[in-house]
Amino acid sequence: MLVLPALLLVAAFLLAPLALVVRYSLDVYDPASLMKGVFSLANYTKLVTDPFYARVLLFTAGIAALSTLICLLLGYPVAYFISRSPSERLRSFLIIITVLPLLMGNAVRAAAWMVIMGTKGLANALFLATGLVSEPIKILYTPTAVVIGLVSVLLPFTIITLQSVLDSIPGSLEEAGRSLGFSPLHTMFSVVMPLSLPGMLAAGAICFCLAMNAYATPVLIGGPSVHMMGPLVFQQISKVSNWPFGSALACVLMAVTLTMTVISTTVLAKRYF
Amino acid sequence: MKRRQFIGAGLAAAGVGVLGSRPAFAQSSKQIVVSNWGGDWNDRTVKYIEQPVLEAKGWKIVRDLNTAPQRRTKILAEKNLPRGTIDVAHVAISDAYLLNTNGAIDAIDFGKIPNASDLVPEIKLPYFEPWLYSTWEIVYNPNYIKAPPTSLAELWNPKYKGKVGVTNQHYEDYMQMASLLATGKLHDLDAAKKKLLELKQVNQPKVYESHQQIAAGFKGEEIWIACNYRARGLQFAKDGVPVAVSFPKEGAALQTFGAVVPKKATHKAEAYEYMNALLDPKHLAELCQANFYSPASNKVQLTGEMGTKILLTAEQKKKIFSPDFGFLAANTAGMLEWWNKAFV
């Protein structure tokens, strides 16, 4: 009972704006008055029938899925190393190093990537100096640049989530596996990874949701030619004041993110638990 | 000391600290919230107008810095609230039109603004105080393009394939420019779309998000030719970017920036004083020499080389096109949608 007021307050602050967005999505845009208060599915019809928006949604989901996969592949070994680190001091140091980038804003990190990935940036300078390329290659303002930027933003979340789950898996289980003749790699795949699957699912879900809704990274690193859903919602709401269509895009983005997260976690959980 | 007494003593001490700082504002208790663009635009507004004219007298200016769409959205959202948070907002003239159409800003009583007695009449609206203006012209790298381009058609010249730049935030300006080239009018959307698709096919323009990115594109020699406001082109050149500006023979669309007072502003008297300060002839002249925009007040004198660079000649003034803001408001959503789908 004691938690009820806090629960109601959080629900009100969380759900009321969402309800408002859903309501706006059923309104109709009017250039003069901006919004006509009606109940219409016109915005959703446009979303479904216009292949451009379906392409953007699919592209966003693809970028989010790829970024999530890379984060898991890169984050797992690091999280394992931190978790099994013998020295408490080293462990604390590594956790701080992992969390440190989160203290910087997304926009600042994106600006740094712009310096690195520009035609005359550090990456191209390095490639040219080492003879890997004969003339500067285009990295900035491409989907590859967006994936690199998103991975750099999401990797700390992945590592921290995985590390906390790996911490809860006793080292004695690995020792038991090895005493039964398993190689370290076999122990990892047969003992540790199945037990850490809930952490992988949680980390994957966090990464996927954040990547689907990313704004600063696609805008600053992807540039105008890389269309993703977050910037598209912003464009409709703020640039052309089309709140109803922007709200419909936001609702679809939320629904797709939620559905894909629930489906993937449920299917994987059923398969492995 | 009990816990409550301790907290009370702490709060009292904090109160003394706050009250103790009051003499710093003793000259004037006037306070105002100004919404403006950030970056160098705001830096210059502060340096040349707000600080010397108002803050030096003890005014406290709270700055709400954001992009134009964010500002417009905020003013629209606040029109139904009992009190707004913005007292005066810097906007482009097309945004002022949109805000006025939606009943979100006040009509301006220009009689209360002494410095507004000699504004350029073509850009003055009943609800918008014009401040600075510029024209949409050709910006090019003179190291690679030796003869100054005289026509917008130069952007379509195949010898500049891969070297043409476009800014995403200026989709309306580029569509107006393409329409002007195709038909001699600003708002023939079909002709503009056809022309821009031709540009995309022929020269594969590089699309940058905003001014800063396209300036970097010029500096890195990724592009040689683009369009932008004359003022921005001159600013880029002053900052060491290898560019020059050329007025196209087809003419140029006008872009005007100025100030509006939101309906729900809480310090309207101060807003009028602020708008008067914006047009202070001496300080506005200094600002124009720093940012290269033309002043909207005829009281401001720009002479010599700077005047030649910034001000339009009599011949150029005959080729100025003022956008139809009603048309833009009605079509901007469709224009952006087409831009996103077909051009970018």
Computed CA radius of gyration of chain B, to the nearest angstrom: 23 Å
Query: Percent of residues of chain A in helical segments?
Result: over 70%
Order of helices and strands of chain A: HEEHHHHHHHHHHHH
Distance between the termini of chain B: 68 Å
**Helix and strand composition category of chain A:** mainly alpha
Query: What level of helicity do the residues of chain B show?
Result: 40-55%
Largest sheet of chain B: 9 strands, mixed
Uncertain stretches of 5 or more adjacent residues of chain A: none
The largest pleated sheet of chain A is described as: 2 strands, antiparallel
Question: What is the typical, i.e. mean, pLDDT of chain B?
Answer: 90
* SSE string of chain B: HEHEHEHEEHHEHEHEEHHEHHEH
Oligomer category? heterodimer
Name the structural class of chain B: alpha/beta
Shape of chain B: globular
Uncertain parts of chain B: 1-26
Strand fraction of chain B: 15-25%
How many β-strands of chain A, per DSSP?
A: 2
What's the alpha carbon Rg of chain A, rounded to whole Å? 22 Å
Per DSSP, the total helix count of chain A is: 13
The proportion of residues in beta strands of chain A is under 5%
Specify which chain pair forms the largest interface: A-B, 25 and 26 residues
